[in-house]
Write a structure and sequence with these properties.
Elements: E1 2-6, H1 16-30, E2 34-40, E3 59-63, E4 66-71, H2 81-102, E5 108-113, H3 119-128, E6 133-138, H4 144-148, H5 155-171, E7 174-177, H6 180-188, E8 196-198, H7 205-210, E9 223-228, H8 238-246, E10 252-257, H9 263-272, E11 278-281, H10 286-293, E12 298-302, H11 315-322, E13 327-330, H12 334-342, E14 345-348, H13 353-365, H14 367-384, H15 387-402
Parallel strand pairs: 1-2, 1-5, 2-4, 5-6, 6-7, 7-8, 9-10, 9-12, 10-11, 12-13, 13-14
Antiparallel strand pairs: 3-4
């Protein structure tokens, strides 16, 4: 089959969306399908076009034998709601124009969201090529997330977004939900359940393979808690800074690795509190993440306490598990269930700095518990969440539904 895959974020940008897309398209190509990717001019996470792409309108590249077309996008280092909307909308317009002008030949259009504006490509494809199949992937519920996070407040925009969301669901032949919760919510919106396929995130081979037995820590080693990933609006990370304040006189340090719109505020808060046990690092390629995880003693994940986020399942959870790091999670819902089922960490109420500090202190004082949780975590993630296996399941589902194309 010929598959046109639209993902705003992709290589050489790094992040969860890039990693998920890469695993899926590689599996598609491995199965003999012809895949082509439409993506933005690389600028994530800083909103500045990468040097190799500056001044260029259209760039074609090769990724593991798969053609990738980078399209124009409005990029800005200013991370306001308005600038993000312009970024999302501009890429969607570029993708729409590509389909409208180039009229690419494909059997299946695979669109991953967010951004929700990519759904316009679903509608255009259905008008231009009504017989071609459409797969709409939902990694995060929009506009639900935007409204609950307070980003989207205009009632007219909310109504228009809901109409676009509903239209994309109904026009698609298959909806891929990235968590069980997302699948259930889409079904509650009136979409028949047999049209929905849940395909959760997982851990990539590069993380699994880079794991090495952690050497005994030196005597001067400080217990290290790490947060690795995008510091976005869905995360509730200020309580982690206050947790660090509670533990400032104890042998523990906190490392934040990555970018995102909330990073600057977190850095400023840490400076105001004069914390010397908090370190911020820039986002690094996935190939280098293992070196940092191997230095840590536990992983952190903290989400805002909102209903729409109860279905979130951050990829960093699986990366921590792969490196035998017990998790301290200020979370509820599906992510908390996974940690609890895997016996891979300690779940505390979202936003509770003291409970988080108590959990970290418990891990510091009980090395055998750290070892037990770490062993359980890696065993669980190897059994349930290898990314390659999950990508294979998804492609098999696509083939079973559309094999006659």
């Amino acid at each position: 089959m010929k598959i046109l895959y639209i993902s705003q974020y992709f290589h050489p940008e790094v992040g969860a969306t890039t990693n998920r897309t890469a695993a899926i398209i590689k599996e598609m190509r491995h199965r003999g399908h012809e895949v082509c990717v439409l993506s933005e001019m690389p600028n994530h996470p800083h909103g500045i076009i990468f040097p190799a792409y500056k001044g260029k309108f259209f760039v074609k590249e090769d990724f593991s034998g798969i053609p990738v077309y980078h399209l124009p996008v409005f990029a800005s280092p200013k991370k306001s709601f308005f600038s993000r909307i312009l970024m999302y909308l501009s890429f969607s317009i570029s993708a729409l124009l590509y389909i409208l002008i180039r009229r690419p030949k494909y059997d299946i259009l695979y669109v991953t969201s967010p951004p929700l504006f990519s759904a316009f490509c679903v509608l255009l494809s259905k008008v231009l090529f009504p017989k071609r199949r459409i797969i709409f992937e939902v990694r995060d519920l929009w506009p639900d997330s935007a409204t609950e996070l307070g980003e989207l407040t205009n009632p007219w925009l909310i109504k228009a977004s809901l109409i676009l969301e509903k239209s994309a669901y109904h026009k698609s032949n298959l909806i891929v939900a990235a968590t069980n919760y997302i699948g259930k919510i889409i079904a509650k919106k009136g979409i028949q359940s047999d049209k929905i396929f849940v395909n959760r995130n997982g851990v990539d081979d590069i993380i699994l393979d880079s794991y090495k037995s952690i050497l005994p820590k030196q005597k001067e080693h400080l217990f290290t808690a790490i947060f690795a990933g995008n510091m976005g609006l869905a995360y509730n990370l200020e309580p982690v800074i206050y947790c660090a304040q509670l533990l400032k006189d104890e042998p523990v340090k906190f490392i934040f690795v990555g970018g995102g719109p909330c990073k600057a505020n977190l850095e400023n808060l840490s400076k105001r509190l004069k914390l010397h046990n908090v370190v911020f690092m820039e986002q690094i390629p996935q190939s280098e993440l293992g070196n940092l995880l191997a230095m840590a003693d536990c992983g952190l994940v903290c989400l805002k306490d909102l209903p729409v986020l109860s279905g979130s399942l951050p990829v960093k959870i699986f990366d921590y598990m792969a490196f035998k790091l017990p998790i301290v999670g200020g979370i509820r819902g599906e992510a908390a269930d996974v940690i609890t089922e895997a016996k891979a960490g300690i779940v505390v109420p979202p936003g509770d700095s003291k409970a988080m500090a108590d959990a970290i202190r418990k891990l510091m004082q009980e090395p055998l518990l750290v070892e037990e949780m770490g062993q359980s975590a890696r065993h669980y993630v190897l059994q349930h969440f290898p990314r390659k296996h999950l990508a294979s399941q998804l492609v098999s589902e696509i083939e079973s539904r559309f094999a006659r194309l």
